[in-house]
Structures
1.
Amino acid sequence: MKKIITILFVAVLLAANSGQSNAQELDKTAGKPFVELFENVAPATMADNVFKLVGEDFMLITSGTEADFNTMTAGWGGWGVLFNTPATWCVLRANRYTLEYIRNTKTYTLTFFEDEYNDQVLHFGMASGRNSDKMKTHRLTAVTTPLGNIAYKEASLIVECEIIQLTTVQPDDFYTDEAKAFIKEGYADAKEYHKLVFGKITNVWRKK
Ligand SMILES: Cc1cc2nc3c(=O)[nH]c(=O)nc-3n(C[C@H](O)[C@H](O)[C@H](O)COP(=O)(O)O)c2cc1C
């Protein structure tokens, strides 16, 4: 009987250890420096379909420092050329906590993911980091870019930006009923009009 118990005990230990080594093997990128995970590419080579990437798959906007950062989901935005510079734009309701980080650091990243991370992308849009634990309960891995911006290791595309202009929309400047309704709704919620954020692209990184 004692022998059987000993054999069972050893079998359980072996099973537990093999589980551990499998888990370690799964993350082949653990500990790798940022530049070994991502390749720096020129903004002009971005041939991605921005309507799908931003409008259908959604993106994460992250701002802050290694010690303190915040992330939100966004479905409005894009990129192009502004004042001769490759630039991005996004539209944020005035009460987004992420805006406070963007104002403080003057930088932010846009990150894009393959479909397998859909639930994680949506996770950051379900609650505000101001009054929830969303920054502790996600399953992504934060990484710091060589410029010191925060992004996520699981991203397939990272766009680093530096604010060019952060401005408040004016209701009289809108001409379509749809846009007017969005702006009105945003004001009713935040008691302040939406913010337009234009950012100079400082780096584009693609997963290697
Ligand atoms: C799919 C999706 C797209 C969103 N797009 C935007 C957007 O473009 N602009 C915006 O201000 N909020 C957008 N949101 C809402 C924010 O992600 C949400 O309010 C979030 O909690 C804000 O987080 P924060 O307060 O921590 O910054 C979106 C949410 C989802 C789920």
2.
Amino acid sequence: MKNIKLAEDTISKLELNKLTKWIISTKILTKSKVSKKFEHIFSNWNNSKYAVFVNSGSSANLLIAQALLESKLLINKTIILPSVSWATTVAPFMQLGFKVILCDTDKENLGLDINHLKKLIKKHKPSCICLCHVLGHSNNIKDILKLVRTNKIKLIEDTCESLGSTYNKKKLGNFGLASSYSFYYGHHISTIEGGMVCTNNKSFYNLLVSIRSHGWSRDWDKNYKKKIMKQYKLNEFENLYTFYNSGFNIRSTDLNAFIGINQMKKIDRVIKTRNKNYQLYKKLLKNFWHQNDDNQFISSFAFGTIVKNRLEVYEYLKSKKIESRPIICGSIGRQPFWIKHFGKTKLANADFIHNHGIYLPNHSNLTESEIAYICNNFLKIAKPIFFDNE
Ligand SMILES: Cc1ncc(COP(=O)(O)O)c(C=O)c1O
């Protein structure tokens, strides 16, 4: 059996050939129509009004964080973030001076634990809540929406691992003010490196495109640009180098957008296959814990489970040339970058995932016999364990 990797051929040879021909025949490789076209195709497919292409999923989160600050939509700088998430789900908010509070994880879907969230809202009165849909699984959107509506809280979604997953038939990333996506090589689709922010809010979109590029106005539509220039009493020449927001340069290039456009041609197939693979894993590993939101459509990122003897399983699988990983960051409250600032933060469910979570490969080129091979080997070594019986 060949090496079984977490990702393989996300960008095919055929796509790379197309790219090579296009680069040679093209004069401008950044900020031309190609990036706009990719954004347009992506937002249409995702059923979002606006999409903003950036150079990574981490930059997408950073961009949302800075746009929230510039938006004046927040009544304070307190945000509740998921303990089981990614380093750069949380770090941008720390870097930009938010008061960051970690919420424990739900034992079924690995999203936010509703009871803990209720307590944190009461205690900290946050302006914003951030979700992370872990490994393709949706949070408990219904209860979370109830809480954010009654408490007038802004909701944002890190959808970097859940492109194409739905909650009650609506694609994840469309439930709050803004959402982030990653197109890193190991994700559902890839632009080598890359990310996207989606929003349905036009003012927020105007902030995003400005902050993405230095804080300038060049990506605004004509009428909006005119209105702002008038407000600041600026002529066209002055406007060229006027910076309205405190920005970054986190653009991607048209080269990456060109890859993205071609990836969109196979996105539905990729998502369907990942779901099918996930169903097979669940059947073959039925005696092990798995994330549970099975009435929703899961565009699986990887198959996450929990085992008593994680290191042993990892090493055994490695000896069989099968890659595996911990369930993303485990608990952020146990990560050195967090501890350095706030000390070790205990969160019972997230700590359990930190100690026992493991994920197995799922990508759209994985065959049924490869999944059977992974599961057979996993079953030879792994010892099941469940929440609350450590
Ligand atoms: C949940 C989550 N958020 C954000 C990111 C960051 O994405 P990128 O690697 O494109 O910066 C990742 C990366 O894997 C992720 O899993």
